[in-house]
């Protein structure tokens, strides 16, 4: 019996991590453990990532509206300042009423505009002749951000805009005064334009040209031009970016599209006519 036990002991092959089989087992085990750890981290960090994205958006809205200035805001300061901002939903031209009716009962803060722009049921294909911003599709419903004075009067309206530059789509915000015509600020928070050229859309000196410019005339037509560098001489003109003609043209076309009849134009017209954004901004009232 002792001989049999000895023989059985000798027949058991020890695990060899240096063999082909051993290497595969170690590699697969390591991959499984790493995948599990990454999945746990991704799930646990998701709320923090979503909050960071929300804070980034809010920070940009506050900055372009002039509420934040150049100050770096803490999350608490962002929350406090954003209490002055009202988020509303606006139904854009050519929207399908049936497709967007469920949004009327929803909260504007829960609406994912970027996701809607890619959803065929919540977006429209833009005809080529109207697509001066080069975006091909756009959402049927957009967020707008209304900044009220201490007296409750509309002071600034912040509109999300995006359009094609040279290498990328530029995503940003433009802020207009209560008249819906005068620019109070512009910013682009996401793009992949060439650093030092088209990437200068981030340059504070270039953005400082925009406040006070007239973007829309009395009849509601977008009139703001991004000219050759150094050629801006009117209140409807902004100097373009040196060495970045295509990006400059993209910014101009983006602004004109979103402030025109196929973008926020009808909403801005109602804003000017009534002077009361509360009667115009809801999804069901902005057709």
Describe the model:
By secondary structure, the chain is an alpha+beta fold. It folds into two domains: 13-83, no CATH class; 85-285, no CATH class. It has helices spanning 2-11, 20-65, 75-82, 97-100, 113-118, 204-207, 245-259, 265-274; strands at residues 85-91, 123-125, 137-139, 141-148, 154-164, 169-177, 183-190, 225-227, 237-239. Strands 1-4-5-6-7 form a five-stranded antiparallel β-sheet. It has a two-stranded antiparallel ribbon with strand order 2-3. A two-stranded parallel ribbon has the order 8-9. The relative contact order is 0.12.
List keywords for this structure.
2 domains, two-stranded antiparallel ribbon, globular, 5-stranded antiparallel β-sheet, 9 strands, alpha+beta, disordered C terminus, single chain, 287 residues
Number of helices: 8
Helix content: 25-40%
SSE order, as H and E? HHHEHHEEEEEEHEEHH
The dominant shape is globular
Mean pLDDT, to the nearest integer, reads 85
Strand percentage, roughly?
Answer: 15-25%
Query: Uncertain spans, ≥5 residues at pLDDT below 50?
Result: 279-287
The biggest beta sheet, please? 5 strands, antiparallel
Number of strands: 9
Task: State Rg.
Answer: 27 Å
Describe the protein's topology.
Layout: H1 2-11, H2 20-65, H3 75-82, E1 85-91, H4 97-100, H5 113-118, E2 123-125, E3 137-139, E4 141-148, E5 154-164, E6 169-177, E7 183-190, H6 204-207, E8 225-227, E9 237-239, H7 245-259, H8 265-274
Parallel strand pairs: 8-9
Antiparallel strand pairs: 1-4, 2-3, 4-5, 5-6, 6-7
Helix pairs in contact: 2-3
């Amino acid at each position: 019996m002792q001989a049999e036990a000895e023989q059985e002991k000798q027949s058991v092959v020890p695990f060899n991590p240096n063999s082909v089989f051993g290497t595969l087992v170690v590699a697969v085990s390591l991959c499984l453990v790493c995948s599990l750890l990454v999945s746990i981290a991704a799930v646990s960090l998701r709320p923090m990532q979503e909050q960071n994205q929300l804070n980034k958006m809010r920070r940009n809205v506050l900055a372009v509206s002039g509420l934040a200035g150049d100050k770096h805001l803490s999350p608490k300061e962002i929350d406090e300042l954003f209490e002055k901002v009202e988020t509303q939903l606006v139904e854009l031209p050519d929207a399908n009423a049936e497709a967007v009716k469920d949004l009327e009962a929803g909260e504007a803060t829960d609406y994912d505009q970027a996701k809607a722009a890619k959803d065929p049921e919540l977006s429209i294909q833009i005809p080529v002749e109207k697509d001066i911003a080069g975006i091909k599709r756009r959402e049927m419903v957009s967020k707008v951000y209304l900044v009220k004075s201490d007296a409750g009067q509309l002071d600034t309206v912040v509109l999300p805009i995006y359009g094609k530059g040279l290498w990328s789509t530029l995503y940003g915000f433009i802020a207009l005064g209560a008249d819906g015509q005068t620019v109070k600020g512009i910013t682009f928070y996401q793009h992949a334009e060439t650093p030092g050229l088209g990437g200068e859309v981030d340059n504070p000196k270039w953005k400082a040209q925009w406040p006070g410019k007239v973007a829309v005339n009395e009849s509601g037509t977008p009139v703001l031009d991004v000219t050759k560098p150094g050629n801006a001489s009117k209140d409807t003109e902004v100097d373009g970016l040196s060495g970045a003609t295509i990006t400059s043209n993209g910014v101009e076309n983006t602004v004109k599209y979103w402030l025109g009849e196929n973008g926020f134009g009808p909403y801005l017209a109602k804003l000017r006519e009534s002077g009361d954004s509360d009667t115009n901004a809801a999804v069901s009232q902005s057709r």
